[in-house]
Write a structure and sequence with these properties.
The protein has helices at residues 13-25, 31-50, 63-75. It is an all-alpha fold. The N and C termini lie far apart (68 Å).
Length: 76
């Protein structure tokens, strides 16, 4: 037994353009929607990069701190 289908009548071309414009405006991303995942990826990458030389604490800065300082110098 087939299910009943409902079709909507076709709208005028100007109404279709207007609804497409409003739909596009509501799908814009906020700045933090891209910045937060990028920041999380960068921090995880730094953690992985610094974990290869895990040693007891010494007087010199760890690899993670050195990479962080280099990144801050490059950005700032």
């Amino acid at each position: 037994m087939s299910a009943p289908t409902h079709t909507q009548p076709l709208a005028a071309p100007s109404a279709r353009r207007r609804s497409a414009t409003h739909a596009g405006a509501s799908t814009r991303l906020h700045w933090w929607a891209l910045a937060l995942p990028a920041l999380a990826f960068g921090l995880l990458l730094l953690l992985l990069a610094g974990s290869g030389q895990a040693q007891a604490t010494t007087g010199e800065a760890s690899g993670l701190l050195q990479v962080t300082h280099q990144l801050l110098r490059a950005v700032g």
